[in-house]
Amino acid sequence: MAESSASIEHVISDDSDMEHMTAAEVLAKLEEAWLNEKFAPELLECRTELVECMLDQIAEMNKNIEKAKKGDFRVTIHRIEIDRVRYVLSSYLRERLQKVEKFAEHLIEEEGKRLPDTASKLSPEELQYAIEYHKSIDAHFKQVALRHMPPNLQSVDTKDTLVKPNLDHFVFLRVNERTLDDVDIDGIETLTLDNHSQYVMRYRPIAHLLENNAVSLI
Amino acid sequence: MDSAEVEFLAEKETVTIIPNFSQGKIYLIGGEVGPFTGSLPLEVPLWLAVNLKQRQKCRITPTDWMNVDKLEEIKRGEIESKYFTEMPSKHYMEMAQILLNCAANDIPNADQVRTLIKDIWDLRLAKLRSSIDIFIGSDGTHAMVG
């Protein structure tokens, strides 16, 4: 029936755990990932499972809407909600893509150095996009400028062109779960971050706290 | 973050509405809403409330802090304190804007409410400016906000 969609639980496999989350929880997690991605200066880990789950939900909801009677005003409400979810999804993917383009060389290099059992920050499609984008930019540069230069200046040293994310960028953050003691700031000082408070500081010392959701960026 | 995105986030907050129609529960991706029973209040997300109001299907009950007395109290507290005082909602500015724009007739003394909220906003902005000035000038590595 049209209204049974949200009672479907999605099985999200989180590494080795099988976690049952309701669609609402997935949406909340996706919105958090979206905001973190927006404010972090570097590319964060790819949450493909959340993206795919939401895409499934939207497809389900669209199917249900088509089955429902015309003129039922619930259809409008569902449509508005679908638009909202799609906006979060596309904004999330767009943010990631912008960072992939900005740091293409750096990410490809990191991917090459990655150990096989650590998770990749890029999804397979993003990695392919990064490689092709980098190739295109290189080819374009050669075509437009380099081939007109004298032969000894025709190569581009990657060390000079590499763009790395600025991890010392200041960010605003909010502490989520519990008071965090012993946050080490570059070995110089240790801070205590109180629960439910907001702070502004450099990204580098707190980057690791984003992984387990102890803080969120605002 | 531009203002549209800030409003987008604020629209997830819940408000109380009084529908003038009846309908069963609606199962949204983000949770369920309803059932809607004529003249009985219920909580819905702000985006839904605004949409229903625009189609004249409900009345929006002003939040408990959106009245002249409470706001004057908050404003007094903000003037007296050197630091930021606690606001009734994380999204007080956006919610006030949205509700005053679409449901001004449901909110008593809408103009006064609008002026008070703007005053509180200006006060806090001024405090923020001066404290950020001090923060940057003192080469601080971190600061607690709000």
| Sheet having the most strands of chain B | 3 strands, antiparallel
* Widest β-sheet, arrangement of strands of chain A: 6-3-7
Mean pLDDT of chain B: 88
State the end-to-end CA separation of chain B.
Answer: 19 Å
The low-confidence parts of chain A are 1-18
Question: Strands of the biggest beta sheet of chain B: in what spatial order?
Answer: 4-1-5
Topology, number of strands of chain B? 6
The ordered string of helix (H) and strand (E) elements of chain B is HEEEEHEHHHE
Q: Which word captures the global form of chain A?
A: flat
Q: What's the overall geometry of chain B? A: elongated
Number of helices of chain A: 7
Largest sheet of chain A: 3 strands, antiparallel
- The average pLDDT of chain A is 82
Query: First CA to last CA of chain A: what distance?
Result: 39 Å
Give the chain pair forming the largest contact, with residue counts. A-B, 36 and 24 residues
Rg value of chain A? 22 Å
Written description of the protein model:
The complex is a heterodimer of chains A (218) and B (146). Chain A is of the alpha+beta class. Chain A has helices at 23-39, 48-67, 73-102, 104-113, 124-144, 158-161, 203-211, and strands at residues 10-14, 17-21, 170-175, 180-185, 189-193, 198-202, 215-217. Mean pLDDT of chain A is 82; it is low at 1-18. By secondary structure, chain B is α+β, with helices and mostly antiparallel strands. Chain B has a three-stranded antiparallel sheet. A two-stranded antiparallel sheet of chain B has the order 2-3. In chain B, a hairpin with a 2-residue loop joins strand 2 (26-28) and strand 3 (31-33). In chain B, helix 3 (68-80) runs parallel beside helix 5 (110-137) and helix 4 runs antiparallel to helix 5 (110-137). The longest helix of chain B has 28 residues, at 110-137. The A-B interface holds A 3-7, 23-24, 27-28, 38, 54, 57-58, 61, 73-74, 76-78, 80-82, 84-85, 87, 172, 185, 189, 191, 194, 197-202 and B 1, 8, 23-32, 47-48, 51, 55, 57, 135, 141-146. Strand 6 of chain A pairs antiparallel with strand 6 (142-145) of chain B, so a sheet runs across the interface.
